[in-house]
Amino acid sequence: MKNHCLVLLTSADSSNLYDRHKLGFADQQRIQEFPQLAQRLDWQNSRFLKQQLPSDYSYTSLTHKKGCAALIASTSCCPLGIDLEYVQQRDFLALSTLCCSEVEQEWLTQQQDLATSFYQLWTLKEALIKAHHGQLSDLCKWSLIQPAKSSIHIPTLQLQAYTAVIKQSWFLSVVYPAIYTDVTKCTQIFGAWNKHDIIWHRWPNHPSV
């Protein structure tokens, strides 16, 4: 059975495989308007991933950071979201006041591994916002912690959501329709990341979150 979704990932060392001549029409227009984009690793690697998609996978969500890139694509118009973040030391509790609900903020104060919990929340919330065509200002509106629950839940039964940790330095979350195939069966990895096992965690759903 054909996969309806594809998840493509690449580390920063795939830029030599980028082909400007294979850009789609919209990306060609962006390059003409902003020619400096062609020199950026983020652009080269994210567009390299787009160039790996079969022609019928025309709906995408993209993310990139520090030259690495990831995308999720589908053959039909449906909710798709993806986010990639690099692990850094931050004042996570202070940041949580900008991007988390009050319930999430309280939950974070109770976590032994604050960094992991924060990045899981952050990437999942951004992926959900992308899937619903929202804005970053909506981050606080999406609460993934229910007062009666002690762990993250996805607030809909129609979507499935996964998070992976890559090389202990990157957090990646994807969101897409529940009827589509398991992410482990539709992920392709390029560059040095291909040498590392990527273990996905699927999050439970709870429609009343």
Output the keywords.
globular, four-stranded antiparallel beta sheet
Mean pLDDT: 92
State the major sheet. 4 strands, mixed
Instruction: Give me the Rg, rounded.
Output: 17 Å
The tally of helices reads 5
Beta content: 15-25%
Q: Roughly what percent helix? A: 25-40%
Along the chain, the helix and strand elements come as EHHEEEHHHEEEE
The global form is globular
**How many runs of DSSP E, i.e. beta strands?**
8
Question: Poorly predicted ranges (pLDDT <50, ≥5 residues)?
Answer: none
Query: Order of strands in the sheet with the most strands?
Result: 2-3-1-7
Structural class by secondary-structure content? alpha+beta
CA-CA gap between termini: 33 Å
Describe the fold and architecture:
The chain has 209 residues and is of the alpha+beta class. The chain has helices at 25-33, 41-51, 92-99, 102-109, 114-131, and strands at 5-10, 59-65, 68-74, 81-86, 159-166, 170-177, 187-190, 200-202. The strands form two sheets. The protein has a four-stranded mixed beta sheet, covered by helices on one side. A four-stranded antiparallel beta sheet has the order 4-6-5-8, with helices on one face. The longest helix has 18 residues, at 114-131. The chain is globular and about 55 Å long.
Describe the secondary-structure layout.
Elements: E1 5-10, H1 25-33, H2 41-51, E2 59-65, E3 68-74, E4 81-86, H3 92-99, H4 102-109, H5 114-131, E5 159-166, E6 170-177, E7 187-190, E8 200-202
Parallel strand pairs: 1-7
Antiparallel strand pairs: 1-3, 2-3, 4-6, 5-6, 5-8
What's the short version?
The protein is built from 5 helices and 8 strands; from the N terminus they run βααβββαααββββ. The chain is of the alpha+beta class.
